[in-house]
Amino acid sequence: MSPGDGISRELRPYVDSAESEALDRVGERLERERPIPRPAFRSALGVTLSRRREPWRPRRLGLAVATYVGSGLLVLAVAALGLGGTGPLGY
Predict the structure, then answer these.
(1) How far is CA 2 from CA 11, 13, 35, in A?
(2) Do residues 59 and 65 touch, judged by C-beta distance below 8 A?
(3) Which residues, including other chains, have CB under 8 Å from residue 23's CB and lie 6 or more apart?
(4) Reported pTM
(5) Residues 80, 85, 86, 87: is their CA dihedral positive or negative?
(6) How far apart are CA 89 and CA 87, in angstroms?
(7) DSSP E strands: which ranges in the chain?
(8) 31-41 burial, b for 16+ CB within 10 Å, e for fewer?
(9) What is the pLDDT along the chain (91 residues), one digit of tens a residue?
(10) Which helix (H) or strand (E) element contains residue 25?
């Protein structure tokens, strides 16, 4: 991370310089102390992922899609009822 890449670059017009420098120090500390998995785990994970012949896919894809579509339609119906002044969100 170079000196100009800290979070304070995005916050500069909103916070004072002392606070932005403190935020940069916290960000640098979090990057330094970030836990990294053991090399043995990373190696085993790489081997496992490279052995897959086809990408992962849910067993019952049609059921999953139908569930997501149904729940989305239910949320839209509740919102429509609320806009109409009835239902659980109506006044």
Answers:
(1) 16, 20, 21
(2) no
(3) 6, 7, 8, 11, 15
(4) 0.40
(5) positive
(6) 6
(7) none
(8) eeeeeeeeeee
(9) 455 566 667 777 777 878 888 888 888 898 899 999 999 999 999 998 888 888 778 889 999 999 999 999 999 998 888 888 887 766 5
(10) helix 17-32
